[in-house]
Amino acid sequence: MKTKSGKLFRQAAILAACLLPLWCQPALADRIKDLASIQGVRNNQLIGYGIVVGLDNTGDQTTQTPFTTQAIANMLSQLGVNLSQDQAQKLQLKNVAAVMVTANLPPFSRQGQSIDVTVSSMGNAKSLRGGTLLMTQLKGADGQVYAIAQGNVMVGGAGASSGGSKVTVNHLSAGRIPGGASVERAVPTMLGQGGVVYYELSSSDFGTAQKVVDAINRSVGAGTAQAIDGRRIAVRTPEDADSRVAFLGRVENIEVQPVAGLAKVIVNPRTGSVVMNQKVTIESCAVAHGNLSVVVEAAQPQFGQGADIQVKQDGVSLMSVKAGANLADVVKALNALGANPMDLLAILQAMKAAGALRADLEII
């Protein structure tokens, strides 16, 4: 009897030792700053039209891009050089390119701060490498000037020569200027009103919103957070600005375990990519597409059982899958049968229309 009890005790000890790493493993959680953002705290897009000079005969062909010559004439007139209309039309400057300049103005930006800008050719320039962007006004959606951009354009690209031919890798008609714009006007940012700050989840989910509310109230104090709907959460903050910033910094780093999101399948027919955000199962169905046939049987699969691929005698490829199988197994089996991206898309759409695919199907 003692021997049997000792044996059971040793087995229990071994089982506990095996499960201890699983018990001690911390649960995966996200910070609130990764799940939500503060309402009103966002970037603002800026855009401007400019001229890049100093190119090595890789600029616009001014005969085919009249806006380039017009921009050059307007710029020279502001610098005291007046050109007639005929003279402006005869300009042949291959070292000049008309570009669009874009940038993002971060929240709480102030005058004098530097931001990065992106310079993109809008004409037929071959390359912007080695060019210099002249002073360009960057405007917001309201037409006001918020930044001024100028500087040397950095364009990535590697060239290789083989057998007398030159091959250029990477895109040369767009580049960046790190810190190339100076902020001239600040955008007022309201950080809450009446002692309340609203957090907005990146995607609407009632379960995740409730978990965020519970985590904030548990960490800061009961009644601090309240869910408005499936996306917005109202959080009471201190009135003092310094205390509010410290409070929000603490709230942003609170960890939350979000609930499982909506099952979704994303298909890119151009590249044949299929992405699933979680385990998606399919119900009983039968799909015939060209020489491909998909049959999902009603029987439930055994643990670890995947798709069973067979071939009919008449040469038509047949794939037999148990109901409840993982969609990843179905996609893998279809690829093994030689299905192209369009075949895969048609089969998934048919499964979705028949109600067998229990997930949202998104085509990008």
TrEMBL record:
Keywords recorded for this protein, A-Z: Bacterial flagellum, Cell projection, Cilium, Flagellum, Signal
UniProt similarity note: Belongs to the FlgI family.
Main location: other
Keyword Repeat: no
Its biological purpose: Assembles around the rod to form the L-ring and probably protects the motor/basal body from shearing forces during rotation.
Residues spanning the signal sequence: 1-29
Protein name: Flagellar P-ring protein
Top-level taxon of the source organism: Bacteria
A Pfam family this chain is assigned to: FlgI
Annotated localization: Bacterial flagellum basal body
Matches recorded under HAMAP family: FlgI
NCBIfam families, A to Z: PRK05303.1 (NF003676)
Subunit structure and binding partners: The basal body constitutes a major portion of the flagellar organelle and consists of four rings (L,P,S, and M) mounted on a central rod.
